[in-house]
Design a protein that fits this description.
The protein is α/β, with parallel strands linked by helices. The protein contains 19 helices and 27 strands. The chain is 35% helix and 23% strand.
Length: 613
């Protein structure tokens, strides 16, 4: 979602802030701005568009300062324009503030502030915060930090805030509830960021703020953290788990392509230390303490959003087939509002790449409140999800910068597969021979993906078929049905071609009406239990003159002969097939988007980490 960067110290702040917000561009945004403390004045520069436009705007401006904050905004309240861009200033110019999140009761607060004579320059919910804090600090004659705490006690919603003020020119006040925020520590300098990407260049020592924290950061003092009830807290320093090299594109033209090609290593890293074929062991250390709860569970519920929800659908097949327990897969955004029935013997698995997805975190809290055991699967060490679940496993995918998730999906499926295999073996719900086949095949997945990459140029050729198309249908059956959903999502996310995924048999119940000679139909038709059935579905498409792009098992001839285009992938155990069948669909979406001239890494209207509802 929106990006926050702040700096205070002996260096020039502006270059650090601009470099920082550039590294946050992947989160999605439509405007950018910077506020710099200069003696008794705050200089504010902001504009709609990319960070490069903000840089051009600042070329002839005074940017000399040692303390400042910067922001990239993804619009929620108010359209993307210069006025609605952050930072926002108090009427007297004494305070500047940036904010990630949503203030739900902003209209009530805004009307009260207007009654008191405050005038608003923007349509945002954020601007009420800067006026409310200024109003409290003036009328109560208290410190700025105390004014922030009092103001936040009146706020309903989520926030990550960074605030500078002219009364304390070497100070930044930060606060967090529901949106990520961390403090990086250098030598007599501090860095603020909404994730580690902007600050890893300068330090790997960080403090992750917790919900309700308000911290005062001053180069002349130790960091002071209190909660909004003014109770003092002890800062806990951790090591940042990313490196600068991981954040660079290298020789790849886009982050998305780099991350697609990183999947063999990412999957291997997700398995490292958790699978030992020789010793016949699959074990996830992060869930050992709660293994008994998992073993005795009556039901698994999986809550996630977007690509993570698709990984959850794959996990439904894995857990029901291997562990022989019922599984329900829920959109976290719906789960949180429908008064779900949960019991103490339920296990809720929450999945999120960033560990900061607002709806998934809300589902997590509901599950905990109702006594369920909550297991997390995420990529980011120190994230809110990782801290708030009972137990869980990291995917170890490394940073994912491209907005359209690729390695997040395959590493989540890998971890969920390991979880299902471990439980199935301990419960005795899987035969030893099948267990051995699965773990051996799982270990070979990275090599199989490398084989698929050899067809990259051919997939690029297929992509040219889509350049004048506006719609596409993706079909799959069984465990490949979630892959069809994920493939369609990738295409629509980055190429803006409307695409829908369906269970192949359901095509007859509506979508078949759309098929004509202009309709590309992508069919995942690998060798599995429903192979003959999906062949019949393909014939139904051909009869309506639809164009078939098939994903088939290496050596297939039957479906290949029916297809206009055919991509072969290595033979793989049916339950593990999503780990390989998803790869050509990622490459196809990527090449279609590139051929259409789309901004692959930063598709319009989308954000990497959706930390608001």
């Amino acid at each position: 979602m929106c990006g926050i960067v702040g700096y205070t110290g002996s260096r020039e702040a502006y270059p650090i802030l601009i470099d920082g917000v550039k590294r946050l561009e992947y989160r999605g945004y439509d405007s950018a701005g910077v506020a710099l403390l200069q003696d008794d004045n705050i200089s504010l520069y902001k504009c709609r568009g990319k960070v490069s436009e903000l840089e051009r705007f600042c070329l002839d401006k005074n940017i000399k300062a040692h303390t400042g904050i910067a922001h990239t905004r993804w619009a929620t309240h108010g359209e993307p324009n210069d006025q609605n861009a952050h930072p926002h200033l108090s009427e007297d110019g004494k305070i500047a503030l940036i904010h990630n999140g949503i203030i739900e009761n902003y209209l009530i607060l805004k009307r009260e502030l207007q009654r008191r004579g405050y005038q608003f320059k923007s349509e945002t919910d954020t601007e009420i915060l800067v006026h409310l804090i200024r109003d409290i600090s003036k009328n109560e004659n208290i410190s700025m930090a105390e004014a922030v705490r009092q103001a936040l006690n009146e706020v309903v919603g989520t926030y990550a805030l960074a605030i500078i003020n002219t009364e304390q020119p070497e100070e930044i006040i930060v606060a967090k509830k529901g949106s990520p925020l961390l403090i990086g520590m250098g030598e007599n300098e501090y860095f603020i960021a909404s994730d580690g990407a902007p600050i890893v260049k300068y330090t790997n020592k960080v403090i992750y703020l917790e919900d309700g924290d308000v911290a005062v950061i001053n180069t002349n003092k130790k960091i002071e953290i209190r909660n909004i009830n003014n109770e003092k807290k002890r800062p806990y320093t951790q090591k940042l788990e990313i490196t600068l090299d991981q954040l660079e594109k290298g020789d790849f033209p886009h982050y998305m392509l780099k991350e697609i090609f990183e999947q063999p290593r990412a999957i291997q890293d997700s398995m490292r230390g958790r699978i030992n074929v020789e010793k016949d062991v699959v074990s996830l250390g992060g869930i050992i303490d709660y293994e008994a709860k998992l073993m005795n569970a009556k039901r698994f519920i999986i809550a996630a959003c977007g690509t993570s929800w698709h990984a959850g659908l794959v996990a439904e097949y894995l857990f029901e087939t291997l562990v022989r327990l019922p599984v329900e897969v829920e959109y976290a955004s719906e789960f949180r509002y429908r008064n779900p029935i949960l019991n103490e013997d339920d296990v809720v698995i929450v999945i999120s790449q960033s560990g900061e997805t607002a709806d998934t975190l809300a589902a997590l809290e509901i599950a905990k409140e109702r006594g369920a055991t909550v297991i997390g699967v995420c990529n980011v060490v120190g994230s809110t999800l990782a801290r708030n679940t009972h137990a869980g496993s990291y995917t170890h995918a490394g940073p994912e910068i491209g907005v359209a998730s690729t390695k997040a999906f395959t590493t989540q499926v890998t971890v969920l597969t390991l979880m299902a295999l471990s439980l199935a073996r301990k419960k005795g719900s899987i035969s030893l021979s099948y267990y051995h086949r699965l773990i051996n095949d799982l270990e070979s997945i990275p090599q199989k993906i490398d084989i698929i990459f050899q067809q990259n140029d051919y997939i690029k050729q297929i992509a040219s078929f889509f350049t004048n198309k506006r719609n596409a249908i993706y079909l799959g059956r069984g465990v490949n049905y979630p892959v069809a959903l994920e493939g369609a999502l990738k295409l629509k996310e980055i190429s803006y071609i409307h695409a829908e995924g369906y269970p192949a048999a359901e095509m007859k119940h509506g979508p078949i009406a759309l098929i004509d000679e202009e309709m590309p139909v992508v069919v995942i038709a690998t060798m599995q239990g429903t192979y003959e059935k999906i062949g019949s579905n393909i014939q139904e498409v051909i009869a309506r003159k639809g164009k078939i792009i098939s994903i088939v098992t290496e050596g297939d001839t039957q479906v290949k002969e029916m297809s206009d285009f055919c991509i072969e992938i290595p033979a793989t155990e049916e339950l593990l097939m999503p780990l390989v069948s998803s790869i050509p669909l990622q490459l196809l979406a990527y090449h279609v988007a590139v051929s259409l001239g789309c901004d692959v890494d930063k598709p319009r209207n989308l954000a990497k980490s959706v930390s608001v509802e």
